[in-house]
Amino acid sequence: MRINGATLVDGVDLSVGSGEMVAIVGPNGAGKSTLLRLLSGDLQPTQGRIELKQADLRSYSASQLATHRATLSQHINVTFPFTVEEIVRMGAGDMGIVAAHPLVESAMDEVAIRPLRSRQLPTLSGGEQQRTHFARVLVQLACGEARHGPGLLLLDEPTSSLDLRHQIELVEIAGRRARNGTAVIAILHDLNLAVRFASRIIVIHRGAVVADGPPAQTITDGLIRKVFEVCADIQYHGDGSPVLLPQAMKSIGSGNVL
User: Fold this and answer.
1) Which residues in 196-228 are b (16+ Cβ under 10 Å) and which e?
2) What is the pLDDT of residue 255?
3) Beta partners for 186?
4) Phi, psi of 232 (to 5 degrees)
5) pLDDT at residue 38 in the model
């Protein structure tokens, strides 16, 4: 993917199957969001092709694509005074209010925003707004999967405005979708959360994939040093999954604890 002569993503060759939970990690500017926008159809690749369910992504109309994949974007600006319930219902598209009602109620319950249903979105905190949009995306996903079977859920830094409890709840909700067959791909900055969230981690550095596999194989001392340019103390659970200790991280070439 090239824009104005700059290569943002290059040589990426990936396949994600139904039921997979994949976390994309990497430093700022690595190309993570560009890759997700390519996967969602928001951007078109300058070379190569992207397929969804064995069909070229470009063969889908916008309305068709919306029934096969749902995307939670990183930045969503809504200034009109829609209520929480109205925002969540937007995920149902052209489905009638009566038919959409149980899906809307279920999504609001799952992300714990039912008490906010009559609040106007601009009056909410950043985290509450993020959970509202996540509920909307869940409704969109449910509507599409009811028609076409398991779909694709794309999450761009979905936990950026959430407190610890709601971060964990969100990744657990995404995990439930994966166990039901949805392919889930999320950009995450918290590597420990990525390890908890994903059975597969893709590491992006300077627009290229530098690691792809189970957490224990990808989150290593050498990779953290190379990609994130820090030294980190990595310990391991009994199940072999890595845990990074942030208080032990030091910048390479510095004795200062970050």
Assistant:
1) bbbbbbbbbbebebebbeebeebbeeebbeebb
2) 55
3) 23, 155
4) -135, 145
5) 94
Q: Can you tell me whether residue 181 is helix, strand or coil?
A: coil
Q: What is the CATH number of the domain that holds 186?
A: 3.40.50.300
Q: What residue numbers bound the domain in which 190 lies? A: 2-219
pLDDT for the residue 138: 98
Residue 238: exposure state from Cβ atoms within 10 A (0-12, 13-18, ≥19)? exposed
Name the CA radius of gyration of the chain, rounded: 19
CA–CA separation, 173 vs 8, rounded Å? 31
List pLDDT tens digits, range 102-117.
Answer: 999 999 999 999 999 9
CA pair distance 150, 135, nearest whole angstrom:
18
Q: Quick check: 243 and 195 in contact, CB under 8 A?
A: yes
**And the tokens for 233?**
């103390």
Low-confidence stretches of the chain (pLDDT beneath 50): none
High-pLDDT (> 90) share of the chain, %: 74
Task: List, in sequence order, the alpha helices (H) in the chain.
Answer: 32-40, 62-66, 84-89, 97-110, 126-148, 164-179, 191-197, 215-218, 221-223
Q: Is residue 110 part of a domain?
A: yes
Instruction: Specify the amino acid at residue 97.
Output: I
Say if 245 falls within a structural domain.
no
Identify whether 154 is part of a domain: yes
Q: What is the pLDDT of residue 179?
A: 96
Q: Write down the pLDDT at residue 199.
A: 94
Give strand pairing partners of 213: 201
**Amino acid letter, residue 194:** A
Do 187 and 202 meet the contact criterion of CB atoms below 8 Å apart? Answer: no
**In the chain, how many domains are there?**
1
| Planar angle of CA 38, 43, 45, nearest 5 degrees | 70
